[in-house]
Amino acid sequence: MSPSALIADDEPLLRERLRTLLARAWPELLVVAEARNGREAVELFDELAPQVVFLDVHMPGLSGIEAARAIARRAQLVFVTAYEQYALQAFEQGALDYLVKPFDEERLADTVQRLRERLAHTAPPPAGLEAVLEGLSAELQRRLGAAPGHLQWIKASVGASVKLIPVEQLVYLKADEKYTLVVWEGGEALIRKTIRELADELDPSRFVQTHRSVIVNLHQVLQVTRGANETAELQLKGRRELLPVSRSYLHLFRQM
Length: 256
Prior knowledge:
- The protein has helices at residues 12-25, 38-48, 64-71, 88-92, 105-120, 129-144, 195-201; strands at 4-8, 30-35, 52-56, 76-81, 97-100, 153-158, 161-166, 170-176, 179-184, 187-191, 207-211, 214-217, 221-226, 232-236, 242-245.
- By secondary structure, it is an alpha/beta fold.
């Protein structure tokens, strides 16, 4: 059975370039999908379960590092970065592999060799991977500096009027076919914006995705109850409904 891979990068030309180089360096590798951002990478990984994931460090919305935390221990990870010195010490400790843009075929050949060996021996991800990812996430935030302004209001039609909902009043958001159900302290409404678009605009320190169809306001979470198969349910303050947490997002609640 041929090994499979996922490429995640927000630049289409770089995705195409990496795919072309991989076809030469590792002909039997099957690239099963390409993702444009971290959130899409996690969704495609859950759907297709590739053995190798190439993740661009800097992507809009969910970064490659945050996507890696959701995928960790289920695939071999390779970070792609434009900065050779970016967290180089952590990479060279063997915790993770990396490629530098623009891609160097000799470096890619080394990476492919290491990946072949790990897959051949079904080597588990290195010990301490989560701690390394935590450190890389902090370093990424430091290098990026202050984040741009996040969404402050959501515009929703309520009856015959249009209501501006302050984001601090949001309880959760839930995908509903082509719409998103917005639940806030004062009511509910459907809006045409997709949950993926909203996820990229909301403050990630306050709003987190718990499932491919759900985003929750952390300030509204009362408790987390672990379930089977590395899943969980969230109980909200003053509400009866329970929200699902899929295995890809459970790591966000391990400290709660």
